[in-house]
Design brief:
The chain is of the alpha/beta class. It folds into 3 domains: 4-185 and 235-263, ANL, N-terminal domain (Rossmann fold), CATH 3.40.50.12780; 284-354 and 356-494, ANL, N-terminal domain (Rossmann fold); 496-634, ANL, C-terminal domain (GMP Synthetase, Chain A, domain 3), CATH 3.30.300. The protein is 38% helix and 22% strand. The protein has 20 helices and 28 strands. The strands form 5 sheets. It has a 9-stranded mixed beta sheet with strand order 2-1-11-10-12-13-14-15-16, with helices on both faces. An 8-stranded mixed beta sheet has the order 7-6-5-3-4-8-9-20, with helices on both faces. α4 (100-110) packs across α5 (120-129), α12 crosses α13 (330-350) and α12 crosses α14. The chain is globular. Keywords: ATP-binding, Nucleotide-binding. Residues 23-458 form the AMP-dependent synthetase/ligase domain. This is AMP-binding protein. InterPro entries: AMP-binding_CS, AMP-dep_synth/lig_dom, ANL_N_sf. It comes from Pedobacter steynii.
Length: 635
């Protein structure tokens, strides 16, 4: 196990591994090179990082300069990040999916001097706006074909191939300078600017220090002590997001784990089978899709196969509940579990590579039924909670104590408060040490203070003061409570719907009930200042196509919404059935089926796949009014 007092900055994590855990020639990074998985050692990684440092020192880059990255997860990300950070420069990672306008804003707002570019598509995007980015001096493509792309005549920034940068000679004298700069870094120095998704306005640059990241890694490893230097992580969530950065990249740098990079989301299942990871960070949506496919496959066609599948799930549930209650499952139940494992569970696990210890779910709350499903299979899902502004982890599930529907125990070294939204009175303050298994409280806004809280928003003192109050509490804007000692997320404060009768409705729990239907992929709840709720529904495309034998051309039709009565009734059956699980004021009275999902490209979703409520309600206002008019006519 790593001695945590040996490092306090992001670049020192990896140096500590080479000095105390692994030999330089041992494998650190794994990526697909054409058709072959290629392994890259810790030593080669540090050698390439030093070349990056040396090159940019020659170019006059100094401490606190901002350096951009707009690239998919890859070894090049690590070389560049390690290289700039060890000389004190600041990582500004930009989501590859952002529009030209948003990329231009971030480059200018942060004052990026050089930017690493991962693909021809992104390269074209950047060179198109580069003339409007006066501080941008260097554009660094990682791909060889960049020379074939015509440059604008007025381009001032210099184009430099990343492969050439990696050839930079690192003299003994320069090596000593890099070491001096790295060891001079302070924990309070800014490590990264991460721009928030901006569901409600202009993105803000969150300033996260080396201490924010390192302390977050330390306490998470204390809470999940089973992660060691033998793990292989499969990385597919974007490194431009704080969750993957901390939960995979920084954790692996601290513990000396291997990182394998998935080729794409589409090839993730194939890559899992090839890499056979032991740990993965993921988002609830991925787990929901695995759950839906497993249920569909296991019950398809009915008959004996379906009966065995459902029997196995029931056995798994009984076994899990006995274990979680601290009881011995007994000989008979253990025997049934062994049969269920052989006939059903092992086949599902094999699709993940067969070696998974656990998966870490973050980015949103995981529906309780999905978490329980994986628990029944014997696949452990650890949930975490946090925001970009909290580095990100505030709470995470303990490895040996699962409470489904919650996001875990408060991490060491911070305080989490639950504050009454209206009166601002403190309902409860909990710490890691105050944990009690039976503790519960009322819900309110989740606030936090301690080592995980950001330094502030870059160049935005007013917004910083609004987010962090005079008592150093950061206001998350999330609604939650403590349940069985663990933190439980209810919804976002800004998502709250107040109906015409003054009743508060938090959309997420309601949406999660309806998302139990295998016919529904997404659901967007509407009803603020209205007498009742309605919704836009995105159907599960695969299931709908199979049910109604729909051609691909069906989804290319100009009508944004589907009004086919058979399809509406098909979805309506599940809406009616699931509504019984909700209070009357939480039930959907009418809905429209959207032909295609909400998208980032259309400005309806953030890069972290959160719906932009105000944008959607404004854009589809006519359709919303139509739904309420139809409901009135039906009455």
């Amino acid at each position: 196990m790593v001695l945590f007092n040996e490092f306090s900055t992001v670049p020192s994590l990896l140096r500590n591994v080479v000095e105390n855990i692994h030999k330089p020639e041992e494998t650190f990074l794994i990526h697909k090179n054409n058709t072959t998985w290629e392994e890259i050692s810790f030593g080669k990684t540090l050698e390439n990082a030093d070349a990056v440092s040396s090159f940019f020192l020659d170019k006059g880059i100094v401490k606190s300069d901002r350096m951009g990255l707009m690239i998919e997860n890859s070894p090049e990300y690590v070389y560049y990040d390690q290289g700039i950070q060890q000389i004190g420069a600041i990582n500004v990672s930009i989501y590859p999916t952002l529009s030209e306008h948003e990329v231009e804003y971030i480059i200018n707002d942060s004052g990026i001097r050089a930017i690493l570019i991962g693909s021809p598509f992104l390269y074209k995007k950047v060179i198109k706006i580069a003339e409007n980015c006066r501080q941008l001096q260097y554009i660094v493509p990682v791909f060889a074909e960049y020379q074939k792309i015509t440059l604008p005549e007025d381009l001032k920034a210099e184009i430099i191939s990343f492969s050439e940068i990696l050839k930079t000679e690192v003299t003994a004298e320069r090596g000593m300078e890099i070491t001096k700069l790295r060891t001079a870094l302070r924990p309070s120095d800014i490590s990264s600017l991460i721009y928030t998704s901006g569901t409600t306005g202009t993105p803000k640059g969150v300033m996260l220090s080396h201490s924010n990241f390192v302390e977050n890694v330390k306490v998470c490893l204390q809470q999940i002590p089973v992660i060691d230097e033998t793990e292989t992580f499969l990385s597919f969530l974007p490194l431009s997001h704080v969750f993957e950065r901390t939960a995979t990249y920084h954790v692996c740098c601290a513990q000396g784990c291997k990182i394998a990079y998935a080729q794409s989301l589409e090839l993730l299942a194939k890559n899992m089978g090839e890499i056979k990871p032991t740990v993965m960070s993921c988002v609830p949506r991925l787990l929901e899709k695995i759950h839906d496919k497993a249920i569909k496959s296991g019950t398809a066609g009915g008959g004996l196969k379906s009966k065995i599948f459902l029997w196995a799930l029931e056995v798994g549930q009984d076994y899990r509940r006995q274990k979680e209650a601290g009881k011995s499952p007994g000989i008979i139940l253990s025997g049934k579990k062994a049969i269920a494992e052989k006939l059903v569970f092992s086949k599902i696990k094999e699709k993940t590579g067969g070696r998974l210890k656990f998966m870490i779910s973050g980015g949103a709350a995981l529906p309780k039924n999905v978490g329980e499903f994986f628990g029944n299979l014997g696949i452990k899902i650890l949930e975490g909670f946090g925001l970009t502004e909290t580095s990100p982890v505030m709470a995470v599930t303990e490895y040996d104590r699962q409470v489904y529907g919650t996001v875990g125990r408060v991490i060491p070294g911070i305080e989490i408060g639950i504050q009454n939204v209206e009166t601002k009175e403190m309902i409860s303050i909990q710490t890691h040490e105050s944990f009690k298994e039976d503790f519960e409280c009322e819900e309110g806004e989740i606030i936090v203070r301690g080592h995980c809280v950001m330094q502030g928003y870059f160049n935005k003192p007013a917004e910083t003061a609004e987010a962090i109050d005079k008592h150093d509490w950061f206001h998350t804007g999330d609604i939650g409570r403590f349940f069985k000692g663990n933190l439980q997320i209810t919804d976002r404060l800004k998502n709250m719907i107040v109906n015409a009768y003054g009743k508060n409705v938090y959309p997420t729990p309601v949406e999660n009930i309806y998302l139990k239907s295998l016919k529904i992929d997404q659901l967007f709840l509407i009803g603020d200042k209205r007498e009742y709720l309605t919704a836009f529904i995105i159907p599960n495309r695969e299931n709908m196509q199979e049910q109604f034998k729909l051609p691909e051309s069906f989804f290319q039709q100009p009508d944004l919404f589907i009004d086919d009565k058979e399809i509406v009734d098909w979805i309506g059956q599940d809406i009616k059935k699931l509504s019984n699980e909700l209070a009357k004021f939480e039930r959907i009275k009418n809905f429209k089926i959207k032909r295609n999902p909400f998208s980032i490209e259309d400005g309806e979703m953030t890069p972290t796949m959160k719906a932009k409520r105000k944008v959607i309600e404004k854009k589809y206002a006519g359709y919303i009014d139509e739904m309420y008019a139809e409901s009135v006519e039906a009455d």
